[in-house]
Predict the structure of Selenide, water dikinase.
Amino acid sequence: MQSEKRDDGSDDNDRDGSPRLTQYAELHGCSCKVGQDDLDALLAETGPFDPNDDLLFGVGEDAAARQLTEDLAMVTTIDFFTPIVDDPYDFGRVAACNAASDAFATGAVDNLTGLVAMGLPRELTDTAAEILAGIVDAFEAMDGVVAGGHTTLNPWPFAGAAVTATASPDDLLTASGASPGERLYLTKPLGTQPAMGSLRVRDEEFEATVKNACPRPVEDVGREAIEWMTSPNREGARIVREYATTATDVTGFGLLGQARIIAERSGVGIEITEFPVIEGTLELSRLFGYGLESGESAETSGGLLVSVPADRAEQLEASLSRADVFFHPIGRVTDGENASIADPSISEVTR
């Protein structure tokens, strides 16, 4: 395949001649999701999703849950997106971790099963095997299995999975249980959007601007972002469900968007006073205009956002520390409405 020149002087192939997956989509990773307001409007317009007695929870949550027996519930969800990274194998790993995270956010961590969803343009069909290998390896690392899937030709590449997992109904969490006075925690640093955006720059003049804006090599920032995106939320979820009243994962709507979901569904206020970011991503976000400082930057395969009663916060922290699961306190639940981030204290994190 001969590469096609882009308006910015770049082409569809990387410098080593391999296809650049991100050049085949205008939006990348979870930033390709339909916006929160548009999604709310769509659901309001179609309106077929009345409460269902057969479901423990469904539309509006990270996943749906159905009780199978007195002590067993099945959680189902689906998630797929466009490439956020050019390497096909890493793309598959990120897509798998991101899809499974929606199940983990509900506390369902057992019997993980995935059905792959993948679409590729004709020019990229040779990358399918590597993408699939990344998905399979990621599921195996999460003690899960890939049971099948569906592939299609598509102008923009995408990959992900329909996921099922199980848990006791008593262990399940939603975004609806937060109460005033509780503490908020995040289990991964933010910044995947600016980190990966910096790696997509190929215009030589702007590439120099990006490198000068970042206090460390952008390759290191991107490598760490991939490491975070391919770190499953499974162990964190297993621990969190013992202490938390509410959980979700931070993805395309960003930290503030996910906090607003908890605030709305729980009927509380969310006050975010601090949060962690991958070192170097603040400067990159300011350059690209992604809004990381205000919690608006889209995250891909982000961490768990959980609410915990104040008298259980110390136990949660101790349990996460023993399991070597990253965590950072970020704020509190209030009597107010909506979610806010005002002059937050931002901690930079390196791996």
